[in-house]
Amino acid sequence: MTQSFADLDWSLVQTFLAVAETGSLSAAARVLGVSQPTLGRKVREIEAALGAELFMRHAKGLALSETGAAMLGPAQAMREAAGRLALMAAGEDRRLTGPVRITASVVVSHFVLPPVLTRLRREEPGIEIDLVASDSSENLLFREADIAIRMYRPGQLDVVTRHVTDLGMGIYAATGYLDRVGRPADVDGLLALDWVGFDRNEMILRGMAEAGWRVGRDFFKLRTDDQAAYWQLVRAGGGVGIMQQAIGAAEQLVERLVPELPLPSLPVWLTAHETVRRMPRVARVWEALVAAFGALS
Amino acid sequence: MTQSFADLDWSLVQTFLAVAETGSLSAAARVLGVSQPTLGRKVREIEAALGAELFMRHAKGLALSETGAAMLGPAQAMREAAGRLALMAAGEDRRLTGPVRITASVVVSHFVLPPVLTRLRREEPGIEIDLVASDSSENLLFREADIAIRMYRPGQLDVVTRHVTDLGMGIYAATGYLDRVGRPADVDGLLALDWVGFDRNEMILRGMAEAGWRVGRDFFKLRTDDQAAYWQLVRAGGGVGIMQQAIGAAEQLVERLVPELPLPSLPVWLTAHETVRRMPRVARVWEALVAAFGALS
DNA sequence: ATTGTGTCATTCAATATTGAATAGCACACC
DNA sequence: GGTGTGCTATTCAATATTGAATGACACAAT
């Protein structure tokens, strides 16, 4: 029997939102931690319940229909309310055990956090960590992450921020690349080399401007906003790039260029909603991150 | 593994709301159409997921804790958003088959609608009807009902209203009661009898005021706001009461008193959200109700 | 034309969830 | 004290749901 509108299962709306935002059942399944056939059934279920086609099926995923697009507003309003609800409950949660979700940039996730979190897991086996490697800004207000590690000071309301370190930066190029083009003796020689940069992300442009180098986007002949891909391009000899000293130093395939050149360092901020920050297990992870980043200075 | 806050199953919030508003697992189970053990498990599940105690258990049900009370706001915001979402989808639903939810007062539900809905079921077997007998005002904005039958013109925004009939009212008393106290010859004799009235509901007081009878709440020696109980009290000889003529006429155990006395009639309004009203199966039920109430005039 | 990739839809064994039945409790009524 | 009522918590057979495996499809790359 078809259920009434008033009886719509709200978890179906959750499913709808995930599929709408990822663009496919498979991707949404990965995000939600369920299987693709399960999501397929749930999408059909909400479409049947509402008597409306919310998605148009394609070989490479699902696109929102007009109806589906119209529903995004209220669906996102539900998520906002659900996040507020979770925040209220967080104030009551005194458990030291349970999950903590951390979001950090791809590079920090790959190179900085693994040893930190591994040690924390040994010290606090009751705390489970979800690490979300993402260069986008998660919304802490809605409990999409408990702690965010950022390279800028977030300006969101009601969040606690703490400056934990400044990451020293260095200029690197692959040994193979340098063997081929020669090692520059000065800044002019350095700037004449091929450079790897970001695409739309202006962080490097701003950093170079701060160092007094007026360059434009086309100065970089290889561009990507994916930070992991960025470093792989540099490692592979794609050109000169900028990376954290701790990461560059650990890499055998690259050489640091012109080490005496002062570069602006990269500030690292921990961020959390103040209610969430007070939860015992989040506070414990926060302390561990403060100590770990402090040791990097 | 304890799930993360971000992964909270929204149907658990739905459960929380139903239990919070009904005050017990058993009552909420009846409302939601699931079993009491199922709701018991789901309440424990959301409490575990949020790491907070939302309810205080009692022998006669569950009372909200402070945390639970604080969560009502965002939970109700979710329901509001879910209702808006359902309304948007309703505009797309062109099916003539499926469920339609009607809410009407207890008396109309008991005495007027059964033959109407029975005939409609024969004519449109693809339409399923949920009849909610309730004297409270459902919220049509949130799709808590598709069509409401009311004795007053609703003032809600975006709803379509239609005045379908005026119900003639009459004064009745049980034959047994009248045999015992005598049949009044005039209005003074009538007012000297015992009367059955409402408790907090002022509808009868207002009706009598309109008829020029200034009486107070204590004029009624038997009082209930439950309209079915009201009529049963009159039928059982509890005193004089006012009822729709169609209902009074069909009842063998009562007699109409002072038929020449003009009473204000009771207007009947059909109400539906305008988007919902356009859905084919809701439009069909609306037509059937218009025709049925029209035949009562 | 062939191959590889990522997608959705289907099947069915495995797993999870549900609800009937029941126990136990608190309270009101007699 | 005994009985009736309405509640929550527990057990376990019945039922529903899930996901592994698979087929089919569209598209890009070769």
Explain the overall architecture.
The structure is a homodimer of 297-residue chains. In chain A, strands 4-3-5-12-6 form a 5-stranded mixed sheet. In chain A, strands 10-7-11 form a 3-stranded antiparallel sheet. The longest helix of chain A is centred in the first third of the chain and has 25 residues. Chain A starts with 9 loop residues before the first helix and ends with a helix. By secondary structure, chain A is of the alpha/beta class. Chain A is built from 13 helices and 12 strands. The first copy, chain A, has 3 domains: 86 residues, Winged helix-like DNA-binding domain superfamily/Winged helix DNA-binding domain (Arc Repressor Mutant, subunit A, Orthogonal Bundle); 98 residues, 3-Layer(aba) Sandwich (D-Maltodextrin-Binding Protein, domain 2), CATH 3.40.190.10; 96 residues, 3-Layer(aba) Sandwich (D-Maltodextrin-Binding Protein, domain 2), CATH 3.40.190. The structure holds a DNA duplex (30 and 30 nucleotides).
Give structural attributes:
globular, D-Maltodextrin-Binding Protein, domain 2, 13 helices, 297 residues, three-stranded antiparallel sheet, alpha/beta, 3 domains, homodimer, DNA-binding, Arc Repressor Mutant, subunit A, five-stranded mixed sheet, 12 strands
Summarize the structure.
In chain A, 44% of the residues lie in helices and 21% in strands.
Q: Look at the structure and give the mean pLDDT of chain A.
A: 84
Q: What do we call the CATH homologous superfamily of the largest domain in chain A?
A: Periplasmic binding protein-like II
Which two chains touch over the largest interface?
Answer: A-B, 51 and 50 residues
Strand adjacency order, main sheet of chain A:
4-3-5-12-6
> How many structural domains does the protein architecture of chain A include?
3
Give the topology string of chain A: H per helix, E per strand: HHHEEHEHHEEEEHHEHEHEHEEHH
Give the terminus-to-terminus CA distance of chain A.
64 Å
In the CATH classification, which architecture of the largest domain in chain A applies?
A: 3-Layer(aba) Sandwich
Largest sheet entry of chain A: 5 strands, mixed
Oligomer: homodimer
Structural class of chain A: alpha/beta
**Count of alpha/pi helices of chain A:** 13
Q: CATH fold name of the largest domain in chain A, please?
A: D-Maltodextrin-Binding Protein, domain 2
Q: What portion of the residues of chain A fall into strands of 2 or more residues?
A: 15-25%
Helix content of chain A: 40-55%
